[in-house]
Amino acid sequence: MNPRKLSGLQKDALRLYRDCLRAIEKKPEESRARFQAFARHEFEKNIASLRRTDVKAIEHLLRVGRRRLEQYQSPNVRDITIV
């Protein structure tokens, strides 16, 4: 059985999600669950609202996600809430 090949955008989205999960491991243990819930919520929210063929929107969200990840990786950010 041949696994389905992923597009470049799909690979980028998975890479961003994995990077988020890695960054969460560096946060205080008591807030990791909230960071993980936030990341999952953001990805699921955007999955539900996009079509796979909407390349410009996906690229935009990937850029926004990278910027947010950089902000949240700061040691000053110790906790997060979903609003």
TrEMBL record:
<dbReference type="GO" id="GO:0005759">
    <property type="term" value="C:mitochondrial matrix"/>
</dbReference>
<dbReference type="Pfam" id="PF05347">
    <property type="entry name" value="Complex1_LYR"/>
</dbReference>
<feature type="domain" description="Complex 1 LYR protein">
    <location>
        <begin position="12"/>
        <end position="71"/>
    </location>
</feature>
<dbReference type="InterPro" id="IPR008011">
    <property type="entry name" value="Complex1_LYR_dom"/>
</dbReference>
<comment type="similarity">
    <text>Belongs to the complex I LYR family. SDHAF1 subfamily.</text>
</comment>
<keyword id="KW-0143">Chaperone</keyword>
<keyword id="KW-0496">Mitochondrion</keyword>
<dbReference type="GO" id="GO:0034553">
    <property type="term" value="P:mitochondrial respiratory chain complex II assembly"/>
</dbReference>
<dbReference type="InterPro" id="IPR045295">
    <property type="entry name" value="Complex1_LYR_SDHAF1_LYRM8"/>
</dbReference>
<protein>
    <recommendedName>
        <fullName>Complex 1 LYR protein domain-containing protein</fullName>
    </recommendedName>
</protein>
